[in-house]
Design brief:
This protein has 310 residues and is of the alpha/beta class. It contains nine helices and five strands; from the N terminus they run αββαααβαββαααα. About 5% of the residues have low confidence.
């Protein structure tokens, strides 16, 4: 029953679609495909530019600036027979080696070739400017790419190989990204937590190391302070010892002077009796004033030592 109810409707829809396709078919067939006058250049046919006069355009399908000059370049190529020049284009994505041979670093890039001598065209990609560049032979005032800079040199051939390898690597990177399978969410969350915990652990270790360093610095400072105090105490003891020695030596000199004075008493009596001694052996007797000065000095030093205390 269900098939019988929907059967006529499906048949009518199919017939309408076929009729639309039959009507659109002849109209599409009547429109001829537009011919491009620009010749694609590849690594296999690029040597054609070594003969005659050529203009080449290096482009990329995704480049907006390249797309803006497409219609102008096509018009220029359409009038190539009148200008007696061949016009070509190079897709740098499809031909990385050829872009390396010409050392193309910016897009779009234009080159002029005349019997194997290449020059870089740096003007705008507008038909009028391109036409005047050929008709007025403005390319003659441009310095040619000679020596190792020439696309036909061995150096540029090696550059072409490097660019070809880099292009293949770029393709492999794109393929690997297509087959890249991201980690499940729970695994990625675990990985993130692990990373955070490791960072926190490292931060704690750094903090502990800084604290230990600070503690060691404090201990060193304390030890240095203790050593300084001990040195001061030792210096104070040495000063006191020196003062004591000076006091002892002064007291000893006073005692010697007193003893000498007592010994000289009998000698004076003998001299008074008429037995003088030679002047050379007579010692110089200290006066009472000198003795008093020495005793005063000793008393002052003792009082100063008592004021300083232990």
């Amino acid at each position: 029953m269900a098939g019988g109810r929907w059967g006529p409707l499906l048949t009518a829809l199919l017939a309408a679609r076929v009729a639309v396709a039959e009507e659109a078919g002849p109209a599409q067939a009547a429109l001829p495909e537009e011919r491009s006058w620009v010749r694609p250049m590849t690594a296999s046919n690029w040597t054609l530019v070594m003969e005659g006069e050529w203009m080449l355009k290096f482009y990329a399908p995704w480049c907006p600036s390249c797309q803006q000059t497409d219609s102008e370049w096509e018009t220029f190529a359409r009038n190539g027979e009148t200008l007696q020049i061949s016009v070509g284009k190079v897709d740098v994505i499809q031909e990385p080696g050829l872009s390396g041979r010409f050392f193309v670093t910016t897009l779009p890039a234009f080159f002029h070739a005349k019997d194997g001598i290449f020059r870089r065209y740096r003007g705008p990609g507008i038909y009028e400017d391109l036409q005047n560049y050929i008709l007025e032979k403005k390319w003659q005032s441009v310095e040619p790419l000679t020596g190792w800079k020439s696309p036909a040199s061995l150096t540029m051939s090696g550059m072409a190989g490097l660019f070809s390898i880099s292009g293949k690597i770029w393709v492999l990177v794109i393929i690997s990204e297509c087959f890249y399978v991201p980690l499940p969410r729970h695994l990625s969350e675990c990985t993130e937590q692990t990373r955070r915990s490791e960072e926190a652990h490292k931060a704690e270790q750094l903090q502990d190391a800084e604290e230990e360093k600070d503690d060691s610095n404090e201990e060193e400072n304390k030890d240095s302070l203790v050593d300084d105090e001990e040195e001061k105490e030792d210096l104070g003891d040495e000063d006191e010892a020196e003062e004591d020695e000076e006091e002892d030596s002064a007291a000893a000199r006073v005692d010697e002077e007193r003893n000498d004075a007592q010994d000289q008493g009998p000698l004076r009596e003998v001299q008074e009796d008429g037995e003088p001694e030679p002047e050379e052996d007579t010692p110089v007797q200290p006066s009472p004033a000198d003795t008093e000065v020495v005793e005063d000095t000793l008393r002052q030093r003792k009082s100063q030592h008592a004021d300083k205390g232990p």
